[in-house]
Design a protein that fits this description.
single chain, mainly beta, Chitinase A, domain 3, 2 domains, 6-stranded antiparallel sheet, disordered N terminus, EC 5.2.1.8, signal, isomerase
C-alpha cells in the first residue's frame, strides 16, 4: 500500500482545466495567473510568535515541536531553525519537503510527513495559487537544507470555512515546521534524444519554453509518443502525483490552448487528467521531456472545452520534474 500525505488539504486544488478529465474552462494561456506577482512569498518576516516555537532535532528527522496552544499571529511569520546552503527555492518554484503541521489554536498535531522510509515525497510550491498562502510564504526564497518554522493566521490558512476533515476551525491558526529537502528543477534536465519521425517538431527557448510546429498531413488516429529528453530519475508509476511543466497545442491550428510556462510548474494526479495524457507520462522517468499526440478518443472526444473545439487532436510537450 502506497502512503500518501494529506497535502491535498493544504493545496489550492487549482489544477489546470486544460488537463482535467472533467469538464471546465481552460485558462487563457495569455492571461497572468501567477499569484506570486501579487503576494511576495519571499518577504515573510520573523516575529515573536514564530521565534517562540521551540523546534529540536536534525534535518530530515521528525522534529520535536513545543509551543503554547492558542497562538494567534496577525500575519504569517517564519523563523529559520536550520539554515541550508543549497539551491534557492525561488518564487513560483517547487521543492520536495518533509513537514510537521499543527493546529496552532488547539496545539494538536495535524500531520507529520516525509520522515519515514517508504513514504512518497511531498512537493510544495512557493506559489499562493497552488498552496495555502501561509505555507507558500513559509518557504519562498529559502535554500535546500533549510528547516523553517512558520506560524500562520487563519486568514492565510483555511480561512473562515476551516477544514473539518482535519479538525481545523475557521478561526484556527497553523504552526508548520518544513524541511526543504531539494528544489525541483523548472525544466527537464535529461539527455537529448533523436526526434521521432512524423511527430511535431519542438524548439526550446533558453528558459525551456517549447515552440511546437505541426507537420503537414492528417492527425494520427492513435496515441503517439516521443521522448525528447531522457531523464535519469525514478519511473512514474500509474496514478502518481507528478510535478511538471507542460504546453498543450491544437493539431488543427498549432495554437497553444494551455500551458504552465509563465505560471510555473504545477502538480496533479494522473488519475485526474485525460487518459492520453496519463498514458504519456506513466512509465517515463523523472527529468524526461516527452511529446504526446492525443487523439480525441483519449482526450475530450466530441465535447468542446473552452479553447479546445470538439473532436480535437491534442499535442502536449511535458517536462517531468518530480513525483510527489
Amino acid at each position: 500500500m502506497r502512503l500518501r500525505p494529506i497535502v491535498s488539504a493544504f493545496a489550492a486544488l487549482a489544477l489546470a482545466a486544460g488537463l482535467a478529465a472533467c469538464s471546465g474552462d481552460a485558462p487563457d494561456p495569455t492571461a497572468s495567473t501567477d499569484a506570486t506577482t501579487v503576494v511576495d512569498v519571499c518577504a515573510t518576516p520573523s516575529g515573536s510568535d514564530s521565534d517562540a516555537v521551540k523546534v529540536t532535532g536534525d534535518l530530515g528527522t521528525a522534529p520535536t515541536v513545543e509551543f503554547t496552544a492558542g497562538i494567534d499571529p496577525s500575519e504569517t511569520q517564519r523563523t529559520v531553525v536550520i539554515e541550508g546552503d543549497g539551491a534557492e527555492l525561488t518564487a513560483g518554484g517547487s521543492a520536495k519537503v518533509a513537514y510537521a503541521i499543527y493546529n496552532g489554536t488547539s496545539g494538536d498535531i495535524i500531520e507529520a510527513y516525509g520522515y519515514d522510509e517508504g513514504q512518497d515525497q511531498a512537493v510544495f510550491a512557493a506559489d499562493v495559487s497552488q498552496l495555502l498562502p501561509g505555507l507558500a510564504k513559509a518557504i519562498g526564497c529559502l535554500n535546500e537544507g533549510t528547516r523553517v518554522v512558520a506560524v500562520i493566521p487563519a486568514a492565510e490558512a483555511f480561512g473562515e470555512e476551516g477544514n473539518a476533515d482535519i479538525n481545523v476551525a475557521g478561526t484556527d491558526s497553523i504552526v508548520a515546521v518544513i524541511d526543504i529537502q531539494s528544489v525541483v528543477p523548472t525544466k527537464a534536465d535529461g539527455v537529448d534524444q533523436p526526434a521521432t519521425a512524423g511527430l511535431p517538431t519542438v524548439e526550446l527557448a533558453d528558459d525551456g519554453t517549447p515552440t511546437v510546429t505541426i507537420p503537414e498531413g492528417d492527425a494520427p488516429t492513435e496515441l503517439e509518443l516521443g521522448v525528447l529528453k531522457k531523464g535519469s530519475g525514478e519511473v512514474v508509476p500509474e496514478g502518481a502525483t507528478v510535478t511538471v511543466q507542460y504546453q498543450g497545442v491544437l493539431w488543427s491550428t498549432g495554437e497553444v490552448f494551455d500551458q504552465s510556462w509563465g505560471r510555473g510548474p504545477t502538480s496533479f494526479s494522473l488519475d485526474g487528467v485525460v487518459p492520453g495524457f496519463a498514458q504519456a507520462i506513466q512509465g517515463q522517468t523523472v527529468g524526461s521531456q516527452v511529446i504526446a499526440v492525443i487523439p480525441p478518443a483519449l482526450g475530450y472526444g466530441d465535447t468542446a472545452q473552452s479553447a479546445i473545439p470538439a473532436g480535437s487532436t491534442l499535442v502536449f510537450v511535458v517536462d517531468i520534474l518530480a513525483i510527489g
